[in-house]
């Protein structure tokens, strides 16, 4: 049996054993073709750039976080200042309303006696941020003030709060004012006194000390320099407080016009706005303190990369020296392997030519054998036409066996593998020919071989003859004339690699004495050549044959041919 040999390509050396210099010249990737020192320098440069890039990225992220923190701080502080201002104005306005009630009804003169002064002073003493509570008549003259008694001469007819109340209005908050009794600027809240319709009786005035408010603002815990401003709705500044951490004044940065982070918020139910501003320079100063931490880490990483790179360069130099020594040995070995490879390739080409010639020859032999067998079949048919009936039956059996082998040669000739055939396809074609040529009773033949089964010719030949004998015997002898039945042929896998061929009929069956053990003489006398030949062929194929009379309690006979794997079958046959 011929076996096709696939062409073999010999390589001088496997890539895993090639020196670095040789690999660099064989179309390897760019990084692998680079010298070791250049590769080490490239890796060090990438590591340095990555370290600097990451440090810069983290530092820039912290800068953005610091600015965002300053925005949040300014927003929270402006909310707190606005809330405090609302409560301050609300409390001051409450005292102001009590002073308006203290001035009496619209048709009474304003109080000026000491008892009234003491009651008014007691009203102001309960609120620490109030400097004074003053009653002013319609001409602008102060009639009673908690500052001192008796009230000194003071006319405020030219002040904006007096003119605003004379024009008619409610609560009025004035700009900063220098007190007539000192240099401290004050925040003034005023309301008109009760008067008859269309008349102006005077003004009740409350003076609030900004120093008290500044002391409260100074207690706010800020991480940055900051400024706090209270403004009226028209933009007039009522209070402006600047301070930095650790009592550092931020007025210089503000005066220099540096950019600031500001948060503006309206005071509830009062025409005031609270603004908190943080200089960007103060935020950057804190960020610069954190920046040195990143610089320290970056310098340490750069130093480590430099040391590792130096060690890697030294190792690369030693590897280059070893590579040069290996290259010389490799060049010599490569030349010797190249010569040996050329010899092997020539030998392999010769073997391929021989194998091809043998395959062509085998195909030609198979074709000629098939043709010769067909000639023999034609001669037997001509001879059978001239002899009597008993002898003609023997001729027909011999003719059937020769046709069986001719079909085998034809399938071998068509197969891509000259020494193997698909036995399932062969079985279907064999049964089709038998039922058309030798079926006197008109029995129905069913073949069930769903899976292909490749066999070499040495094992396929006896199995083909067994199938031919069993199927033709069932078609000729299993059914009485006029009572056609069914013959079933199955080819099923058995075990891991074996197959089982079953030939069953539902006819009259074998005589009882033919199912038991028999001697060769008994078999020849009772069974004729067919069953004797089947048992001999089964032994040749390494198969086990079982004969069952009336299988499964039904009529007919079943022949089971169990074929193991090819290796087991050949061992058993040997």
From TrEMBL:
Q: Where is the Histidine kinase domain?
A: 364-567
- Which EC numbers does the record give? 2.7.13.3
Q: Name one Pfam family in it.
A: HATPase_c
Segments spanning the bilayer are: 291-313
Substrates-to-products reaction catalysed:
ATP + protein L-histidine = ADP + protein N-phospho-L-histidine
Domain of life per record: Bacteria
- Entry keywords, A to Z: ATP-binding, Kinase, Membrane, Nucleotide-binding, Phosphoprotein, Transferase, Transmembrane, Transmembrane helix
**Would the keyword Nucleotide-binding turn up in this protein's UniProt record?**
yes
Which GO terms label this protein's molecular function in UniProt?
Answer: kinase activity
Look at the named UniProt entry and state the broad enzyme category this protein falls under. transferase
**Residue numbers spanned by region Disordered:** 504-524
Indicate what this protein is called per its UniProt record: histidine kinase
